[in-house]
Amino acid sequence: MRSSGKRKGDKMNLSNHKSDFVHVNGIRLHYLDWGGSGPTLLFLTGMGSSAYIFSKFAPCFTDKFRVLALTRRGQGDSDYPETGYDADTLIEDIRLFMDALSIEKASLAGHSLAGVELTHFAATYPTRIEKLIYLDALDDRRSLQAIQEQSPLRGIEIKTEASAPRTFEEYIADIKRDLPYFAEIWSDIWEQEFFHNVKVNEDGVFVDKMPASIEKMMVDNLIKGYVPKKVEAKIPTLIFYALGIPTLQRGYTEEQKASYGQYFRSVREPVLRSVISEFQNRFQHAKIVELPDGHHYCFMAQEDLVYEEMRKFLLE
């Protein structure tokens, strides 16, 4: 049973935080602060997510830690500058954020794309980190990118119903309809999360805040082109790998889905396991937790398991 005030089955309180901004590195960054006492635990988001994605999970740790989550530049309620979507700049954003809040040292827990920031920060500022937690957060995706062309779905265009949502409710309905990957783990958190990642354009239509140009810079700099920086310090590290086959977006035929499943098992999973092995070679002291049927958003879909493993690790 969990030791904090949050319990499975409790009615979610998604407003038990302080929402604020810091001005660092020439921009304004948004963050959430759930309070708590003890060492600092800072959550970092995946690409396209905001600090609100941790609204249920993060407060579970406030009995032993001061808990915060940071929204990186180009996402959520943070600023959207035209530059700065490289590893060096992004970790400076984090360091200056910590300085602004007088945080000398923190444990960093990062989801997805944040794996790059965790490794790069640890290699550059090892004395500012207590522990590292990778939440299905690969820091080297080059080999996985290299096999993308082998995907049987490559080049297949999915036709979706034309839509121009003029209310937030219509926008959410489109997400649930077209993206079962999100719909299958839907909760109030997602509505809160998407609310902070959309805007109304000049035509009165709800669209993503993040422009394609920023997404491309992140992909080019942090996924296709990032070579992990060597971490010399032996920092306690925990990494979760989700090995479940992702639910494909609406529109693929049953034959195409079956073909992708075969590709995932015979091509992608072996490469992923080689990535895991390579990571273990770089972080030989790391604890690895594999989630055989895990969802990429493991801290939501496999919340209890991830929570228990994280809590044990953080309190060791």
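[next item in queue]
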Amino acid sequence: MPTPQELWESYFYPETYDPATTNGTLRNLLGERDGSVLAQLEYGETSDRYAELMRGEVAIARTYDARHLCAIHQHLFQDVYDWAGEYRTVNIFKSTPRGFADVGGGEIDRYMGDVQRLVDGTAWDRLGRDAFAERAAEVFAYLNQAHPFREGNGRASKVFMEHVAEQSPFTLDYARVTPAVWNDASMYSGPDLFTYEPQAASLVPVFYAIAVDRQPGVTLIVDDAVRGRSTLRASYPNAPGVTQLRGDSRSVYYVRNDGAVRGTRNGNAGEGRE
């Protein structure tokens, strides 16, 4: 049986792996050995897939469980990694002593079971903004702690949360918070050392800020590139967007369910124009 170190190293091209940093370039279907180039190619490959999901062009059963999240991840990363949609085989620690769900103890499935329980046990269509923010934050805290995949958890989770929000009067505009705010809130939501339950309090104001009144028949897709933010973020990225249409500092595209771009909105979320 491979050791944890051997399993960790198996994700990378051997010639790119640095034992000092325990990092390298992930094996990929593009055959790219340069990590910086791979990051750019990955976002290019997943952007269109993300837009397909957000426009509802992909038939994914809304079961709000591990199967649901794996289907999202598989669609997003099918062109980049052969393990798209599959659980990671290694443990991941990121800025927290507790680390994400332990792959050896069934914790991923346990956290995903909690996610499904929370989603199914909520009357989303009856929630106002305050209650929506509290419950969405709790769902995401468990989802984030599960962190089932070796890469791409943030992108898959954001699509999943939009699927959850479909049941409510709100949609999610992740551009309304900065990457730093999103990252910090996600990090602080992790369980304390030697405990199981995530702490969702840090995420409540974030979900309150990104909750936008849903417009029937209209999908909200945010483009990172036109906002000038990094397109190379991996674990807690802003969602990749649609093709760049404008060069201003912040653009949000409203896309009808038939896929046609309806208009852009610049500046604060409350301002708009066709």
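[queue empty]
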